[in-house]
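The protein record minuted underneath.
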Amino acid sequence: MAHRPTETEEWLSDRVESWVDTYKKSMLTPVILAIVAAEQPTGIARIAEAVTAETGWTVTERGLYRTLKRLEDSGLLSTAEVDAPRTGAKRKELSLTRLGEGLLSGIRANLVTVPDRTDQGSDRARRR
């Protein structure tokens, strides 16, 4: 018989899921800026691949394009149209602007890692 979650477990699961959704939305900007900074100039397909590879998140094409447009409109990314190999079609390549570099630097300087203090009690016991 499968374990049926308690009301408390369901509440906790909903809170975690809500927090993760909010975290993903807020962290998508610095993740994209960091990817572009490391690989610039880079194309949209490469950004999508890198977001998934770096975070494990699935980002919809629509959501990615909307975020990239917002970052470009805000002056954080610049776009250049280049010829795609073998097709002659135009393809967008993105680069970080000075403003984007400044924002990424500021975010990195203020990121916090949640401390994991679960081992600290056992460390104290060993030191005694």
